[in-house]
């Protein structure tokens, strides 16, 4: 219901976004919990209040408090990591990438949800935030955990759909 309300707010010029949002809940490559956490983490990363409100309602109907907290943690920890590691990736002086990050990231080791779910959420947020180094690291971790390419692809596609909804609402 929450995603349906969000869909109804998408302007006519972005009707493709509405169509893609329709596919979000129907997709079966991810579990319901994986989709819900991905939605919340990506919505937070979009910084759009309407998308956040809809995805919070959607996620709250599926995830328990630990899952909601983990999705919020994925968004916040990746906000930090994506800025830092995007810098080390983009700067031409590679000496920065050899320096210790000195950033606390304890939640990655103990997120309170299955590690694969948290990794999917971190990957999706990293895609939204445009950090190639983090995208690569999380994709590799997921593949080593036995996650199929179609699941990873779906997570990225769903992140893109949510980001496009945020942009469409901002452009209205």
From TrEMBL:
NCBIfam families for the chain: ahpD (TIGR00777), ahpD_dom (TIGR00778)
GO biological process assignments: cell redox homeostasis; response to oxidative stress
Domain of life: Bacteria
EC number(s) on file: 1.11.1.28
The keyword Disulfide bond is assigned to this record: yes
Keywords annotated in UniProt: Antioxidant, Disulfide bond, Oxidoreductase, Peroxidase, Redox-active center
Source organism of this protein record: Phyllobacterium myrsinacearum
Keyword match Signal: no
Single GO term (MF): peroxiredoxin activity
Protein's recorded name: Alkyl hydroperoxide reductase AhpD
Cysteine pairings via disulfide bonds: 131-134
InterPro entries: AhpD, AhpD-like, AhpD_core, CMD-like
Record-annotated Carboxymuconolactone decarboxylase-like domain positions: 98-168
Gene name in the database record: ahpD
Family note: Belongs to the AhpD family.
Reaction catalyzed: N(6)-[(R)-dihydrolipoyl]-L-lysyl-[lipoyl-carrier protein] + a hydroperoxide = N(6)-[(R)-lipoyl]-L-lysyl-[lipoyl-carrier protein] + an alcohol + H2O
Functional note: Antioxidant protein with alkyl hydroperoxidase activity. Required for the reduction of the AhpC active site cysteine residues and for the regeneration of the AhpC enzyme activity.
Active site positions, chain numbering: 131, 134
Gene3D superfamilies listed in its UniProt record: AhpD-like
């Amino acid at each position: 219901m929450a995603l349906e309300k969000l869909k109804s707010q998408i302007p006519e010029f972005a009707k493709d976004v509405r169509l893609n949002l329709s596919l979000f809940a129907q997709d079966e490559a991810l579990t319901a919990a994986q989709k819900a956490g991905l939605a919340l983490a990506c919505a937070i990363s979009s910084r759009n209040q309407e998308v956040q409100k809809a995805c919070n309602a959607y996620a709250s109907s599926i995830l328990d408090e630990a899952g909601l907290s983990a999705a919020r943690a994925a968004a916040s920890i990746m906000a930090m990591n994506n800025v830092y590691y995007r810098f080390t990736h983009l700067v031409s002086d590679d000496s920065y990438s050899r320096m210790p990050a000195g950033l606390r990231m304890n939640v990655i080791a103990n997120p309170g949800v299955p590690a694969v779910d948290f990794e999917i959420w971190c990957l999706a947020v990293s895609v939204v935030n445009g950090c190639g180094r983090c995208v690569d690291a999380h994709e590799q971790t997921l593949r080593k955990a036995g996650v199929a390419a179609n699941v990873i692809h779906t997570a990225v596609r769903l992140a893109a759909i949510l980001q496009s909804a945020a942009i469409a609402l901002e452009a209205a």
